[in-house]
Amino acid sequence: MINLNTLVYLGVKLPVKFHVRYDRFADALYIRPRDGRIVDSDDVAPGIIVDLDENNEAIGVEVLQASKRKLDLLKLLLEGSEGLVAKA
Question: Following DSSP, what letter does each residue of 66-83 receive, concatenated?
C-alpha cells in the first residue's frame, strides 16, 4: 500500500492524502482518497465499483482489469471518480 501525504504536481503542493493498492493477481486497483466507514458500493460502469459512506459520498474506487485500461492516476486523484466513469 502506498500512503502519500502530499502530491506535488507542476511545483504546486496539493494537500492530497490517499491510499492506493494494486493486486496484480486480480488485476485490481483500489484508490481510497479518504477514510470513512463504507456502507454501500455502487457499480458505476463495467469493472468500476465506487464505495460510499453514510452520506452517500464516494470514499473509494475499485478498478477491475486495471492493466487493460488507460488510466491517468493523477487526474483521477484530483478530479475524483467522475473522470474515470466517463472513460469506461
Answer: GGGS---HHHHHHH-HHH
